[in-house]
Design brief:
Distance between the termini: 29 Å
Helix content: under 10%
Strand content: over 45%
Structural class: mainly beta
Order of helices and strands: EEHEEEHEHEEEEEE
Strand order of the largest sheet: 1-2-5-4-3-6
Number of helices: 3
Length: 166
């Protein structure tokens, strides 16, 4: 499974540098000079990092072969991805990567089927997007009070929703 670690934004300057919206906790590890990074769509890469620097809080990257602003503009919106096997599991039992949660079956504490996790949103509060059969998707805050159990091996996630959440 591929994980997005960045998204190419607008060009910066006239020499082909691009801004990168970082979507990883460790940009120094994920974007080293000389690394070849896979892309989505795949036909735009892999891209090899020639240089990188921070400028006013934004990550700027120069890719090999991208030497003009117009070429950089063509990359806008491209996702930079890694294989999920490259991610080191956390030692924290309460920390999960999105790819571990997506696909889990969701049940209530009374073992009633709710649906399946289809996405994880990060908007200040982590939200699980749960697809429910014949109903709108549910957004469940990913906090211990509402999600008391995550069983990765069993492929399920237990929720204790307050009245009205589902």
């Amino acid at each position: 499974m591929q994980l997005v670690v960045g998204r190419i934004g607008r060009p910066h300057g006239v020499r082909g540098d691009v801004t990168v919206e970082v979507r990883t906790d460790d940009p120094e590890l994920r974007f080293p000079v000389g690394a070849a990074i896979a892309t989505d769509p795949a036909d735009r890469g892999p891209l090899v990092i020639e240089s990188r620097r921070w400028h006013k809080g934004a990550l700027l990257i120069a890719f090999a072969g991208v030497t003009h602003r117009d070429t950089a503009e063509e990359l806008r919106g491209t996702m930079l991805v890694i294989d999920s096997d490259e991610v080191t599991p956390s030692d924290d039992p309460d920390e999960f990567h999105d790819h571990q949660l997506i696909g889990l079956t969701v049940v209530t504490v009374s073992d009633e089927a709710v649906g399946e996790v289809t996405d994880v949103l990060h908007h200040g509060q982590d939200l699980l997007v749960v697809r429910r059969s014949g109903q709108d998707d549910a957004l469940i805050p990913f906090v211990r009070a509402l999600v008391p159990e995550v069983d990765l091996e069993g492929g399920r996630l237990v929720v204790d929703p307050p009245e009205g959440l589902l």
